[in-house]
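Thread: Newbie trying to understand structure tokens

Hi all, I'm a second-year student working on a class project, and my supervisor (Dr. K.) asked me to get a predicted structure for one chain before our next meeting. I've only ever worked with sequences, so writing a 3D structure as a token string is new to me. If someone could post the tokens and maybe explain what I'm looking at, I'd be very grateful. Here's the chain:
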Amino acid sequence: MRKPGERNAPYWSALWCVFTVIAALLFQAAPTRLIEGITLMPTWPLMVIFLWAGLRPYFMPPIAVFAIGLTQDLLTGAPMGVWALSYLVSIAVFRFRGEDGMPRDLPPIVLRFAGTLVLAHAIAFAAGSFALGQPADWQPLIIEVIASILMFPMLAFLVLRRRRSRSSGFGG
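---
Reply by user tm_fold:
Sure, no problem. This is what the structure looks like when written as tokens:
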């Protein structure tokens, strides 16, 4: 029998999942500019989707991933469906499978995220180019990939650290 505090854990985890997704979308919609230059913003929604899909896969069903991608398209002004398609395909290809789910070691998680990130941005470039009728600007996508690869290990480390400190997993 579970302890009384454990019964509410999925609800708090679900609320935490919704909060992190909304925060990631808001951060993505409010890019940071370098001095008179390029916009520097990691792909926060993909990071959150990737982590939640590994830790609590039932919080990230395909419809939720699709809705997050469409919301990002609306907030950032991208052609509709570009990020929704890229997130769905990349998460479907690179998500953690099996009974154990996401490993507790950082290097395999970072490598799998890097594959997810590169595939998502390649699909976004191709779909965006198709939607625009001309090649999309690749420079912002390359900058997002680099910024995301540099930022993700810190975020994953914090999640794994919290996951290791609790026997029941991240957020509950």
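A couple of things are worth pointing out once you decode it. Confidence is low (pLDDT under 50) at residues 168-172. Helices lie at 4-7, 9-29, 44-55, 62-76, 82-94, 106-132, 139-165. Feel free to ask follow-ups in this thread.
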